[in-house]
């Protein structure tokens, strides 16, 4: 029985990965709904669970690829590998269009650039404080501080180590979760009660799930406005971090 | 057909990554430079163009929308294969970086959402009375 199941899973790794991730997400959204009343978005819990699974996998196998190092779970490696990941990220641009971003006006666009650069600089400074000195690691951690997508995309492009890429994801995850939880509390202090500010907010914070979750908890009417700018953030980050921002970092820390 | 959407996405993806590789070569860094970002730009422009020409039917769109919906699950699979055990030593770094980025970003929001004469008119047209916004959406 067990042998049949083991063979089945080993042969159909990618399909097994779909099932595992689907179940993980189901549990996460259930927890999000029941334990946090939707305040922490299900996707954030699912990613945290993923990192937890990776930790367990890493301890059990002693390898560097988390759960994917266990032969039964190699499909996770395929599903979460660079090819499908980048493909799906590109697909998320499908919802966005330039005529909508125009509505955000000059400040909305400006907020995107300010947001990416600001988070990047914060990440680089913190990484410096923790003793990282090479431009690739600094750029990757800075990029991850922008969002947990820009980090690994940048890290993979620049050839950063797996530890640094993981740190960059963790930094982005902290940012996303804090944005989700904190937005309703900070909203009244930063005037976040109108569509224009919501668009600026989406551009500055950038984490789409964090902004959408946080705005939904603040005032559901603001969600589409925040999402309009936030959807451009990851793209802009993926464009700037491995190019302009990396080159600047390289010049400064060469 | 659904495959048209998937193919459209694939073509944008490949041209974006190609462009990124090319730019990396030109800039003399041995890496892909912003390929994913370029691919996103191509997709936005192409989708907008095809929609204007009415060449993008519902099924074609579904081909792209499916992969857009797979984004979070794939990110979860990605996080499950990271070297978390190895990075645990630096966990404090991630927390400090994340918290600092959020707090500083919060402080900047009021600076950007205020001021700028251009936006006074935009504010008027968008907000147009806070209540009506929800209704118009």
UniProtKB/TrEMBL annotation, chain A:
The entry's keywords: Membrane, Transmembrane, Transmembrane helix
Entry's Gene Ontology molecular function annotations: sodium:malonate symporter activity
Residue ranges annotated for the Malonate/sodium symporter MadM subunit N-terminal domain, each copy included: 8-253
Record bears the keyword Lipid metabolism: no
Domain of life assignment: Bacteria
Ranges that cross the membrane: 12-31, 43-60, 72-96, 108-130, 164-186, 198-218, 230-253
Classification via Pfam families: MadM
Designated name of the protein: Malonate transporter subunit MadM
Native source organism of the sequence: Mesobacillus boroniphilus
Gene that encodes the chain: madM
TrEMBL record, chain B:
Transmembrane segments: 29-50, 62-80, 92-112
Domain of life: Bacteria
Keywords, alphabetical: Membrane, Transmembrane, Transmembrane helix
Keyword Ribosomal protein: no
Gene Ontology cellular component annotations, sorted alphabetically: membrane
InterPro entries registered for this protein in UniProt: Maln_transptMadL
Record's keyword annotation contains Mitochondrion: no
Xref: NCBIfam families: malonate_madL (TIGR00807)
Protein name, per record: Malonate transporter subunit MadL
Species name: Mesobacillus boroniphilus
Lineage: Bacteria, Bacillati, Bacillota, Bacilli, Bacillales
